[in-house]
């Protein structure tokens, strides 16, 4: 780990439940986890194992009930809403439901990803550059209704990355993509980790991309059943702002 940089995510004693009274059900139980900066971590497990709940807690989208969650040095347990909003500005999100604005073009949708991160040098050019890297250079001015499902998902990926987030949270980002497109997206995320220090936590059932992971976590019944670190995993890098669009 690079000097002076703590882990991107540190979790201790994290538990979470839904429901009240007799209907109350624990979906996460005593999770302890450190994720160094720059790692691409894949989170696997059967439906109902707690993967998406864990993702939303670490992504500052849900309040911590029990335990400690530190994201980029910020404790989320007991954090006020303003603190959660501030933390989210340093994060990027890719969901299976792309949630594009139907009245905006692909380029405009990606530029919307800049709103939470503030102005970045060359960011407007970076939006077009990212779409080009994802094979959408000829679709910049198309509306979502004119795009296929896989193309919409790639626009959503570009929107998540254009603000140069420190951590990317991805929930089934390759589900709507063919093998080649899905691999290209994950290879880009892995490269960002190795070259720029971007951390990615990805929920997936896509066995085609497992070899690209630095680490694979398997959840079962709300607990981490297996934690496999791959050889040559990413080391921490100092986060850099802006994009090289050469």
Question: What's the gist of this structure?
Answer:
The protein contains 6 helices and 10 strands; from the N terminus they run βββαββαβαααβαβββ.
Key attributes of the depicted protein:
single chain, 246 residues, alpha/beta, Rossmann fold, 6-stranded mixed β-sheet, 4-stranded antiparallel β-sheet, 10 strands, 26% helix, ATP-binding
Outline the structure in words:
By secondary structure, the chain is an alpha/beta fold. It has a domain of 170 residues: 3-Layer(aba) Sandwich (Rossmann fold). The protein contains 6 helices and 10 strands. Strands 6-7-8-3-9-10 form a 6-stranded mixed beta sheet. A 4-stranded antiparallel beta sheet has the order 2-1-4-5, covered by helices on one side. It is globular and about 50 Å long. The two termini are 29 Å apart. The mean pLDDT is 87. This is ATP-binding cassette domain-containing protein. Pfam families: ABC_tran. Keywords: ATP-binding, Nucleotide-binding, Transport. One of its GO terms (molecular function) is ATP binding. InterPro entries: AAA+_ATPase, ABC_heterocyst_DevA, ABC_transporter-like_ATP-bd, ABC_transporter-like_CS, ABC_transpr_LolD-like, MacB-like_ATP-bd.
